Amino acid sequence: MSMPNADPRYALLIVDLQNDFLHPQGAYARGKTTSEEAAALPARIRPLAQAIKARAQGLVCASLFTLWPNAAGEPMVSPHLLAKRGFLKKGDFAPGSWGQSVVDELKDTVDVCVQKVAYSAFFNTQLDWVLRRSGVNTLVVCGIVTNGGVASSVRDAHVRDYDTVVLSDGCAAFSASQHQAALDDMASVAEVMSCSEWLSRLAQSTGLDHH
């Protein structure tokens, strides 16, 4: 893992904080697959999104997990996902739908959304193009789940030579053990720190107090 960039150009990547995952009326709540830790993330992440925009003129990106419809209008769900989430049905995570959208608490902070079909926010999306066009060299990652979309996105950022930070309390998984194991694993390719620690770093790098 490299040292932090001497001239960081920041982007915050919010992984999959969408209505169908988190909202009480979303697909995962209907399927009784919820996480209190995940539900708490938007409120914790909102101040970071605001800070990165106001203090560092940084970019806020969100990945949107998407189930594209086939010719019959049925969602094209990968077999491994359908085996675990058999409750997914027509309309869930559909392109442009309410369920696919970023949760309301974060929606107004997001500059760019990319639609993804697998774990990584880089896989078959235009995220890398957007980041490079924006001059980003330092990617701060948060969202769900720690051992899924977050971990895959972090490793893809690493192999693309972004300096990468993972927000330990800005991510969540379906169990504390999975969450911690994923953080420990990502520490080999990224810096792992709390939201508060990263806000302190941002304040220092921009010469502003974060309180």
Brief synopsis:
This protein has ten helices and six strands, in the order βααααβααβαβαβαβα. The chain is of the alpha/beta class and 211 residues long. The mean pLDDT is 94.
Overview of this structure, please?
The structure is a single chain. The chain has 211 residues and is of the alpha/beta class. It contains ten helices and six strands. The chain has a six-stranded parallel beta sheet, with helices on both faces. It is globular, with a radius of gyration of 17 Å.
The helix fraction, in percent, is 25-40%
Write the CATH fold name: Rossmann fold
Main beta-sheet strand count, sense and barrel state? 6 strands, parallel
Q: Output the number of helix runs.
A: 10
Q: For this entry, what is the oligomeric state of its chains?
A: single chain
Tell me the Rg in angstroms: 17 Å
What is the straight-line distance between the termini? 30 Å
| Principal-axis shape | globular
Number of domains: 1
Identify the CATH class. Alpha Beta
Order of helices and strands: EHHHHEHHEHEHEHEH
| pLDDT averaged over residues | 94
CATH architecture: 3-Layer(aba) Sandwich
Count of extended strands: 6
